Amino acid sequence: MATDLETEWQLFKSGILEAAAECCGFKGDRPPSGSQRRSSWWIREVQLAVKEKKAVFKKWIVNKEPSTRVRYVKASKAGVKVVAKAKAHSSEKFGEMLESNFTRQTKYSGRLSAASEEKKGVVSES
Prior knowledge:
The chain has helices spanning 2-24, 44-62, 66-100, 102-120. The protein is mainly alpha-helical. The chain has a domain at 40-114. The longest helix has 35 residues, at 66-100. It is flat, with a radius of gyration of 25 Å.
């Protein structure tokens, strides 16, 4: 009985999945090849600063002494500075890329303005 039910379920499931893939298409869970998986500012230096802050935070949670809190606050402030520096550098590089390639800039700014209009509730009819 259990095997009959299991085979029926597998047949039903495969039929539904095939019909959905045929009708709606299929999108993989990975980004297209050549695209960036993470933010450009998420570099090794930022990862290490965040990891250090997390480790100090865990020590502070276990040991609620003022000295561990001071270490956590210092690590947190250092992490914020590293992230801000990396984001500023990434933004600068992005701006330079847009300036160097004018055709891509116009395409990108068109997408930005369309996205901002959608947020405002204005939808173009094109």
